[in-house]
Design goal:
With 124 residues, the protein is mainly alpha-helical. Helices cover 79% and strands 0% of the residues. It has a single domain, classed as Tetratricopeptide repeat domain (Serine Threonine Protein Phosphatase 5, Tetratricopeptide repeat, Alpha Horseshoe). The two termini are 29 Å apart. InterPro entries: TPR-like_helical_dom_sf.
Amino acid sequence: AQLDLGDAVNAMADLAKAIELSHAQGARFAASTAYAAKADACVTLQCYDQAVNDCDEALKLAVNPLAMAIRGEAKLLSHCYREALVDCGDALALEPHDPYTLAIRAEAHLCLGEVLEAIDDCDQ
C-alpha cells in the first residue's frame, strides 16, 4: 500500500521484512511476490539493476509473470530493449493479455523502431 502512495523508500523496508518472513515460513510464492513488489519499488526509484536482481530472486523461487514483466520494464528503462522483449515475451506466454506487460513490450518495440509490432501490442 505504501508504494501506491508513492512512498517507495518506506515500501522497500516493508517489503524486505515481508521477504524475510516469507523465507522463514517457507512460503516460496509469497517471497517471490514480495521480491517482485520490491523490484517495482526499485523501478520507481530508478534503481534498475537492483530491480533486475530482485526479479531474478523472485524467479528463483517461483514462476512469476509479474516479476518477468517488471524485469522487462527495468531493462526497457536501462535501454536494453531486446532483453526487455524477451522478458515480456516470457511473461506473456503465461498471461497473454496482461495490459502492463503488453504496454512495456510495445514501448520496447517503439524504441527499436518496430512500429507495427508496437501497434499490434497496443491493439490487444
